[in-house]
Structures are given as structure tokens and as C-alpha cells.
Design a protein that fits this description.
The structure holds two protein chains of two kinds.
Chain A lengths: L2 H7 L10 H6 L3 H29 L10 H36 L7 H20 L18 H4 L2 H30 L12 H32 L13 H18 L2 H15 L6 H14 L15 H13 L1 H15 L8 H24 L1 H7 L3 H31 L5 H28 L13 H30 L36
Helix pairs in contact in A: 3-4, 3-5, 3-18, 4-5, 4-7, 4-16, 5-7, 7-8, 8-9, 8-10, 8-11, 10-13, 10-14, 10-16, 11-13, 13-14, 14-16, 14-17, 16-17, 17-18
Chain B lengths: L1 H16 L18 H34 L15 H30 L6 E8 L2 E6 L4 E5 L5 H5 L16 E4 L3 E8 L4 E5 L4 E5 L5 E6 L4 E6 L12 E7 L1 H21 L6 H15 L1 H4 L23 H10 L15 H13 L11 H15 L5
Parallel strand pairs in B: 1-5, 4-10
Antiparallel strand pairs in B: 1-2, 2-3, 5-8, 6-7, 9-10
Helix pairs in contact in B: 2-3, 6-9, 8-10, 9-10
The chains are: A mainly alpha, B alpha+beta.
Chain lengths: ~525, ~375
């Protein structure tokens, strides 16, 4: 892990601590970016293994491998870790590496806080994972933590609340850092409307995080006091309301959905113009679309709750506002396609993942539109249709964009081209495996299979078997990704400064690998 | 071989699924509707899917055309156009109009679903960990409905039946063609009551009552499941609704009332210990074994053992008390309103004499009735 990083040290101006102390004390945005990315990669395999265990249990009806309570622990922890331990840290890793490089800034605005924001994460991750070995096991109430079920659990539930607090703290600090960097440290001449789209999407994401993380913190604090200090925020017997938790939670968690996808939009908007050798079709409208999605994300939360029984006016309001999100999202998809149109495309691995993103994310968008229609949602809520929907937007959406970005910037980070053949194998196995897992889940949901069940009725057997086969293809093909990354760190064909023929932007003006310190003198952007 | 063909058909069928209602029976679409609301939702879903499919074909037709023709390897040179206000306005306004076309029929269905007025009959449904309770408010019939799939089928010790996990001991019975209003609540945690073919789904929220309605237009048996995670046995609390003719419904009500009288008579009887133990074992299997396990050993860390426990081998009053009133803040429910005096007496006696608990004593229904005295008021849920 540290070989390549040591190579960067030669470029440093100061004496650095070595070994573990170097990583514990580092304030360098590139080091911290790598730490975030390695953390995310490790957690991807941890939470991915849980998914494979879930799919193995669901290969056939009956209870074979795990006890129902342990099954619920697996689904809960898979969700929590994939969201807070994989997708969010991976995007933070990209932000740390790329935002200063794209802005022509020497580092992040608050390097010490940057270090702190990262090192909180392994602590939170440890709390989450260690709870499997505590009495009663890990949390089993779903990643949504709905009371009163969440009130019933043991000590690991309190520990999870603590972990959520720590992760929220980390996200808020990271966001303050990103916003300050973007607003104050741009190279002379780099106006806001000239910023690369990846930077724009992260700026908006950071505002979403600052606005919503405290809301989540409030919700879980109320859970904590309900559990331990005799309050009744969510207990009807004491004058509280369990549904209030859902309102507060989704007021956080719907913007969170966009926190998980906006940086992905940013990455794809960098990759497609590069390999189409043509500028992004509508830069300004992409920025406005991102901002509109962010604003709308605050007024749609109750579409996650159509079955709690809202008044008809509320049902209609949340249905209409949710449908409205399709407009800016459509603008984005049309822009990507228009950028490819009449380009001069080549299909290196980053481009393949970006194209798969556009296509498959749109399938997730369509199933999202189906679910926005309240009467249809009432039929499909809490079924496998929803599982299919959010995996299309989070796996072939967020995760595929992360893969695209990884292949795209890996040569800049390591100084070596990755192995293109292995990259293509990784792409094709991932995209085929992913569709085999998640496409049949639409049918399972339509036919009536509830989510979060360890055992199912016989008519659901075939599609579950197909999904499980796909899951193992998808899961094991991620070992190729690991190989590609490790090989590129160790060596390989030297990358040029430009790396990609069509690449544009400040990050492609520094040598590959990017020196330990870059842009000590700010570049001038015309 | 058969399943191979089915698997091969998946991809092709996916494309057709949207438009072909006939495919419903093959499991590629929503279940065959048995009520008007379910029918409306079914058609709405098909319509939305068709529109989505159309958009998908146009947009990605263009993209894949571009991927084929506008590539460097076929010598295509990149154009340099970008920003075109007209194009950008068009692709903002047209989706908006399409969405309005979807919103209108959807809103009509929402308004219809939400109108629970003028019911012909009302049934109150309560979710428990892990069973459903039904109270027919007009006909004065009440019962609990639990999974009837034998444990051996779940563990794989026996072959699985046709309705594996979708069968119950006491189905909910309703007459055809009647507007049935459901008042849905829960006793402990969130549950959700769902019968897909009837298009009726509602979260069951402890302390609150929410209502929905349906009118079944087909005679038959319709199956559903709890769809809100409610703990360990979330996957094992199915719902079965039998839609019958008006006459059959009346006969069913009469039969249920007769059964209730027999059960009530038990509450004043005195049983011998052997009778109580054999009855108690059945009550235990239906109500306690999910957590405390058939062998009384519980699940360490999650659910305590009863075999050798201080409560089951201590004073009998404390034992009766915890079964009547539960243990707040844990999954241990209050069974005062769920079980009859005779059933509680039986299960207490069983627990005190089974496994390692050789207490040799017994509880009689009369003892439960007197224990209920003050306890019943304390145990009554606040919302009722």
C-alpha cells in the first residue's frame, strides 16, 4: 500500500514520518485521498461478503445457512456499511485527490481537519463491525433504524448510534473543508462557472451534507434517549409518534440519496467528454440541473412513506414533487447522450463504465418514476422491486461511476497505466453480473416478494436462484478490480502527463504521478 | 430443464412485461387483480411502463447509434458543438408535459384509494410479533392468525407444501362485493398488512389507527405477507384472505361465534395438570417458541431461556404476571389481550413442568382471572 506513496516522498520538501505514523499524521490531500479510497475498497469487500451470504441463503426456499435474526443483521449492516463505509468515503477520496488538482490549489483548506475527518471513519467502522460479536449480535432493524423495533435491541444498537454520530461528524468536517477549498482556493481566473463539473457536483453535495447530517444526528439522538433515558419521542404510549422518526429520517435520507449520486454525475461528466473528444454539451444546464435536484431533494422525503397512511393532499404533493425530479435528471441524461453525439469515441475502461452508468442509472431512474406514482408505490413498497430500484441507482449508478473515476484517474495518481485487458474483463463481468442479480428482482417485487425476508414462498424460487448466481459473478469479479489497482500501484506502462488524448483540465498539466506537492504557485486560467 | 427454459425467457420477457397483462400469471408483472383498486393500479403501472419503455428506446436508440457510428475506430471526427438553448428548452419542457400526462390518472387513483367512507363492514387488524389479530367490528368475531407451515418444512426436514410460508391457521374471511374498511394498527413494532391481489397495503403503527379499504370482486383465496421489517420472524407472518359468497360468510360468522362460546366455557373450568401441560405445549409452540425456542433454551443474547430460568422456577404469580403484562422495552409482549385465561394457565403450567423445570405445580384459569384484576387496566394500550 505504501510503496507508491513512498515514491512520492522523494518530491517532498520536509522530513516526513515514515511507516504507520506517516499515514496517521498526514495532512497531504493526496495521502488522505488514498486513505479514503483504500478504506472504501476494504469495506466494499466486507459489506460485499455480507451480500453474498444473504444471496447464498436466498438461493433456495427454507432456512439453510443463517438464522433469521442473523440474516436481519446482515441486511442491516450491508446497507449501513455500503452507504457510510463505501460510497461516501470513496467520493471523499475522489474529492481529496481531485478538487485541489482541478482547482489549481496546493492542498485542501484545512489539512489538519482533513486528517481528523478521515481517521474518525475507521473508528466508526470498527464500532459497527465489532457489534457482530457483542451479546445479541449487530443491529438487525434495517439501515433505516425505524423505531419501535430499534428500541428493542441490545448494546450494539447504542454502539451503532455512536458510529452514526462519528460518521456524521466526519462528513460534516469533510464538507466544510471541501466548500471552503472550492470557494476560496481556486486558481486566478477559474470562475465558478468555469469549474470542472466534478467540482460543482461536490460543492452542491457538501452543502447537502451540512444541511442533513445534523438532522440524522438529531434523529438517532432521540432514539438513544428513547432507548436509555426514558423519553418517548417515538412511543405512542408516552405521547410520541413512531412515524415522526420516519419523517425526520427521510428528511435526511432523501438528500442523502443525492449525496450518493451527485458526485457520480460529476465523475461521468468528466469522463464522457474526454473519450468523446468533445466538450460537454450543456455545461450551464448541467450545473443548474444539479442544483435543482439538490433543492428538490428537500421536498420529496415522504415518498418513502406512502404506506404510512398520509392525508390525500400530502400523498398528492409528495407524488407530484417526486415526479418533478425526473425533469432535471432527464436533462442530465440528454446532455450526456448529446455529448457523445458526433464525437470521436474510444472505449477505454473508464468510458465503458460511464456508458453503462448512463444506461443502467436510467433504468433505475425509470423504476424510480414508477415508484413515484403513489398508487403503484403502495403495491411495490417494501418489496424486491424497491431493492432492484435502489441497487440500479447505487450499484450501476454510484459504484460504476466510482469505477469509471478510478480507472480514469488511476494513471495520474500512480504514474502507471492500469492493465486495460483486466479492466475490460472487470467491466464486462461486472455489468453482466450486476444485471443478472438485480434485473430479476423487479419481477420478484411485482409478484409480491417482500424485502428483508430470509425465506420465501416457492413461486419466487427461480428468480432468486438467478439473482444469486449473478451475485457471485458480480462479487468475485471485484477481485479483478483489486488486482488492477495493486498492479497499477506496483508498476506498469508509464503514464504521460496528459494520460488521455481528450483530457482537459488542470489536473492533466501536472506530471504523472502527481508530485507530493502540486500548484505551490497557482496556475493562471484564462 | 424446465427452469433453464424459464431462465432463458427472462430477458425477452422483461421487454414484454410492461405491456402484456397476460404475462401476469407467469410472474413478470403485478399479481392478477381481484379488486377495482388493484385493477386500476395494474393498468396505471402498465401505462407508466409503456411510456418509460418508449422514452428508453428513443434515447438509448440514439445513444447506441452514436456509439456505433461516432467512434474513432471508424474514423469519425469529433464535432465541436455545445450549448443550444432551443434543444435544451425542448428536452426540459417535453418531459414535463409527459409527466403531467402520468400525474393525472395517478392522482385519480390516489383520491379513490384514500376514500374510505361508506363501508359495508369494518375489520380491525392488529400486527403482533409475529402474527395478525382480526376483530370484526360489525359481527363481533375476533381471532388471531398465525403461520401454519410446519417447522420441519422450513428447516428442510420435510418437503415444502404448495403454499409454503403463505398459509395460516385462521384466514380472514370476507364476503364478495362488499366495501370492506380495514382499521390497521400494531401492538409492538411496525408491521405492514399487504394482500397484492386486493391492492391493499397499509403500515401497522403501534398506538395509531390508519384505515384503507377494498372491495373484492372475485371469490377465492388471496395471500400476502407482512412487508415492514418487524424483527426476527418478519418473514413468517403471512396473511390469507378468503373471499366467499354472502351466504358462506354468514355461515362462517355463525361457526366462529359457536367456537368462541366453547372457548369461553374453558375459562371457568378446572383442569388436571396433564391436560394443562398438553394444551400448554400447543400454546407455547404457537406463541412462545419463535423466540424462546421449542427446547426452551432461547437464543443467547437475544431471547432468554425459559428452561431453568428464575421466573419459570420462582413464584408462580411473577410468572403469570410477565406473561400477562410482558416486559416493556424488550420483545416480550403482553399476552393479556391475546390469550384466554385457560390458554395462559396452560402455558404457565407447561413452562413450569417442561425441560429442566420440574416444579410440579399448576395454574388454573381462575388464578389468571384474578391476576388480571388490576393488571388488565395497566396493560391496556394507550391508544385504545
Amino acid at each position: 500500500m505504501s510503496d507508491a506513496a513512498h515514491a512520492h516522498d522523494d518530491h517532498g520538501h520536509h522530513a516526513h514520518p515514515t511507516g504507520i505514523m506517516r499515514w496517521l499524521t498526514t495532512t497531504n490531500h493526496k495521502d488522505i485521498g488514498s486513505l479514503y479510497l483504500f478504506f472504501a475498497l476494504f469495506m466494499l469487500f466486507v459489506a460485499g461478503s455480507m451480500a453474498l451470504l444473504i444471496r447464498a441463503e436466498l438461493f433456495q426456499p427454507g432456512l439453510q445457512l443463517v438464522h433469521p435474526d442473523f440474516f436481519n443483521q446482515l441486511t442491516t449492516m450491508h446497507g449501513l456499511i455500503m452507504i457510510f463505509g463505501v460510497i461516501m468515503p470513496a467520493f471523499s477520496g475522489f474529492a481529496n485527490w481531485q478538487v485541489p488538482l482541478m482547482l489549481g490549489a496546493p492542498d485542501m483548506a484545512f489539512p489538519r481537519m482533513n486528517n481528523w475527518a478521515f481517521w474518525l471513519l475507521p473508528v466508526a467502522g470498527f464500532f459497527l463491525l465489532v457489534s457482530f460479536w457483542l451479546p445479541g449480535g449487530a443491529v438487525a432493524g434495517g439501515w433505516t433504524m425505524y423505531p419501535p423495533l430499534f428500541i428493542q435491541g441490545g448494546i450494539s444498537y447504542d454502539l451503532t448510534i455512536l458510529a452514526v454520530h462519528i460518521m456524521g461528524l466526519s462528513s460534516i468536517m469533510g464538507s466544510i473543508n471541501i466548500i471552503t477549498t472550492i470557494l476560496n482556493m481556486r486558481a486566478p481566473g477559474l470562475t465558478l462557472m468555469k469549474m470542472p463539473l466534478f467540482v460543482w457536483t461536490w460543492l452542491i453535495t457538501a452543502y447537502l451534507l451540512i444541511a442533513t447530517m445534523p438532522v440524522l444526528a438529531g434523529a438517532v439522538t432521540m432514539l438513544l434517549t428513547d432507548r436509555n433515558f426514558g423519553t418517548h419521542f417515538f412511543n405512542a404510549a408516552g405521547g410520541g409518534d413512531p412515524v415522526m422518526f420516519q419523517h425526520i429520517f427521510w428528511f435526511f435520507a432523501h438528500p442523502e440519496v443525492y449525496i450518493l449520486i451527485l458526485p457520480a454525475f460529476g465523475i461521468v461528466s468528466q469522463v464522457i467528454p474526454t473519450f468523446a473528444r468533445k466538450p460537454l454539451f450543456g455545461y450551464a444546464s448541467m450545473v443548474y440541473a444539479t442544483a435543482s435536484i439538490a433543492v428538490l431533494s428537500f421536498i420529496v422525503w415522504a415518498h418513502h412513506m406512502f404506506t404510512v397512511g398520509m392525508p390525500v393532499t400530502a400523498q398528492l404533493f409528495f407524488m407530484f414533487s417526486t415526479m418533478l425530479i425526473a425533469v432535471p435528471t432527464g436533462v442530465k441524461v440528454f446532455n450526456w447522450v448529446a455529448t457523445m453525439w458526433k464525437g470521436s469515441m474510444t472505449f477505454e475502461t473508464p468510458m465503458l463504465f460511464a456508458i453503462a452508468f448512463v444506461c443502467l442509472f436510467t433504468i433505475g431512474g425509470f423504476s424510480g418514476l414508477v415508484l413515484a406514482i403513489a398508487p403503484v408505490d403502495i403495491q411495490l413498497h417494501d418489496t424486491y422491486y424497491v431493492v432492484a430500484h435502489f441497487h440500479y441507482v447505487l450499484v450501476s449508478g454510484a459504484l460504476f461511476a466510482i469505477f469509471a473515476g478510478l480507472y480514469y484517474w488511476l494513471p495520474k495518481w500512480t504514474g502507471h497505466m492500469y492493465n486495460e485487458t483486466l479492466g475490460k474483463w472487470h467491466f464486462w463481468l461486472s455489468v453482466i453480473g450486476m444485471n443478472i442479480v438485480f434485473f430479476p428482482m423487479h419481477f420478484l417485487g411485482l409478484a409480491g416478494m417482500p424485502r428483508r425476508i430470509p425465506d420465501y414462498a416457492l413461486q419466487f424460487t427461480e428468480f432468486n436462484q438467478i439473482a444469486t448466481v449473478g451475485a457471485f459473478i458480480f462479487g468475485f469479479s471485484q477481485l479483478i478490480l483489486l488486482t488492477v489497482v495493486l498492479k497499477a500501484i506496483k508498476g506498469g506502462e508509464k503514464a504521460t502527463t496528459q494520460v488521455w488524448e481528450g483530457a482537459e483540465g488542470l489536473e492533466w498539466t501536472v506530471p504523472s504521478p502527481a508530485p507530493y506537492h502540486t500548484f505551490e504557485t497557482a496556475p493562471v486560467v484564462k | 430443464m424446465k427452469s433453464m427454459w424459464k431462465q432463458a425467457g427472462v430477458v425477452g420477457a422483461a421487454i414484454l412485461a410492461a405491456s402484456q397483462s397476460a404475462l401476469a400469471e407467469y410472474g413478470y408483472n403485478l399479481q392478477v387483480p381481484a379488486s377495482k383498486v388493484a385493477q386500476d393500479v395494474f393498468q396505471l403501472h402498465n401505462f407508466i411502463m409503456l411510456v418509460c419503455l418508449g422514452i428508453f428506446v428513443v434515447v438509448f436508440g440514439a445513444m447506441f447509434y452514436s456509439l456505433l457510428k461516432h467512434r474513432k475506430s471508424v474514423g469519425h471526427k469529433a464535432a465541436n458543438f455545445h450549448e443550444n438553448t432551443t434543444v435544451e428548452l425542448v428536452w426540459t419542457v417535453i418531459p414535463f408535459i409527459v409527466l403531467m400526462g402520468m400525474a393525472y390518472p395517478a392522482a385519480k387513483v390516489v383520491i379513490d384509494m384514500k376514500d374510505t367512507s361508506n363501508p359495508d363492514m369494518t375489520i380491525k387488524i392488529t400486527g403482533y410479533q409475529w402474527k395478525w389479530g382480526y376483530d370484526y367490528l360489525n359481527d363481533d368475531v375476533s381471532f388471531y392468525s398465525t403461520l401454519s407451515t410446519p417447522r420441519e418444512q422450513i428447516t428442510g426436514a420435510a418437503a415444502k407444501g404448495e403454499h409454503y410460508l403463505l398459509e395460516v391457521d385462521e384466514p380472514m374471511v370476507v364476503p364478495i362485493g362488499k366495501r370492506v374498511r380495514l382499521l390497521i394498527t400494531a401492538n409492538d413494532v411496525l408491521h405492514a398488512w399487504w394482500v397484492p391481489a386486493l391492492g391493499a397495503k397499509q403500515d401497522a403503527i403501534p398506538g395509531f389507527i390508519r384505515d384503507i379499504w377494498f372491495k373484492a370482486d372475485k371469490i377465492g383465496t388471496f395471500r400476502g405477507q407482512c412487508v415492514e421489517l418487524c424483527g426476527k420472524d418478519h418473514g413468517f407472518m403471512p396473511i390469507v384472505v378468503e373471499v366467499v359468497s354472502e351466504e358462506d360468510y354468514k355461515a362462517w360468522v355463525a361457526k366462529k361465534k359457536g367456537g368462541a362460546q366453547v372457548a369461553a366455557a374453558d375459562n371457568t373450568k378446572t383442569f388436571d395438570t396433564a391436560e394443562l401441560i398438553s394444551r400448554g405445549e400447543k400454546v407455547y409452540q404457537a406463541n412462545c417458541a419463535a423466540c424462546h425456542q421449542a427446547n426452551g433454551m432461547g437464543l443467547p443474547g437475544a431471547f432468554p431461556a425459559i428452561s431453568g430460568s428464575a421466573i419459570a422456577t420462582g413464584p408462580i404469580d411473577a410468572h403469570i404476571n410477565i406473561i400477562l403484562n410482558g416486559k416493556p422495552g424488550t420483545a416480550m409482549a403482553a399476552f393479556a389481550s391475546q390469550l384466554s385465561d385457560a390458554d395462559i394457565a396452560a402455558v404457565v403450567t407447561y413452562q413450569r413442568n417442561a425441560w429442566d423445570n420440574k416444579m410440579g405445580d399448576a395454574a388454573q384459569p381462575a388464578a389468571i382471572a384474578s391476576a388480571r384484576g388490576g393488571a388488565a387496566e395497566a396493560a391496556a394500550p394507550a391508544a385504545q
